[in-house]
UniProtKB/TrEMBL annotation:
InterPro entries, per database record: Type-I_R_enzyme_R_subunit (IPR051268), TypeI_RM_Rsu_C (IPR022625)
Protein's name according to its UniProt entry: Type I restriction enzyme R protein C-terminal domain-containing protein
Alphabetized UniProt keyword annotations: Restriction system
Keyword Cell membrane in annotation: no
Highest rank taxon of the organism: Bacteria
Domain Type I restriction enzyme R protein C-terminal per the UniProt entry, residue ranges: 3-195
Amino acid sequence: MPADRRIQDYRSTYNDIRDWLRQEKASTERVESTIDWGDVVFEVDLLKSQEINLDYILELIFEHNKKTKSKSELVGEVRRVIRASIGNRAKESLIVDFINQTNLDELGDKAGVIEAFFAFAQAEQRREAEELITDEKLNADAAKRYIATSIKREYASENGTELNSILPKMSPLNPQYLTKKRDVFQRISAFVEKFKGVGGKI
């Protein structure tokens, strides 16, 4: 049986291949290949069934912090685990910021680490939502409702009029309108991936 670290490396590599495959499918340039991607897709689906949850990662932070006392080593180890997890990859920067900005030695047990992380993540969620709204000059109330709804359902949607209602006043005939809409949607989608599951209010 391979060591845990080796298994995490395998998972991370499979996830990298999955992301690369998605980009290839989205590309307009198609290159003929003799690779049977069916096997890769099967392996990725298998990995999904063994998904690492967020609480496990946070408990790992507590355990490794007791052993190493080196934040750089802890961050390196946690990055490996996160990258092996499809569902938590978008939270990598959030978890790393938590490690770097928190005195982990003051947290007495695993429950303390989990509680501190969620408090940190919810504060970051509010700060980044305000930053996004200000940067993109969005309609603040409508944007907060749209983001909160997207986080609740765990994805952002372009359907309906919700997305249009948050955009700055601009004619749909303006050539920049579609670009602005796309950019805002992409930022909100990334925001939702990062913060879904952390709770709190926008």
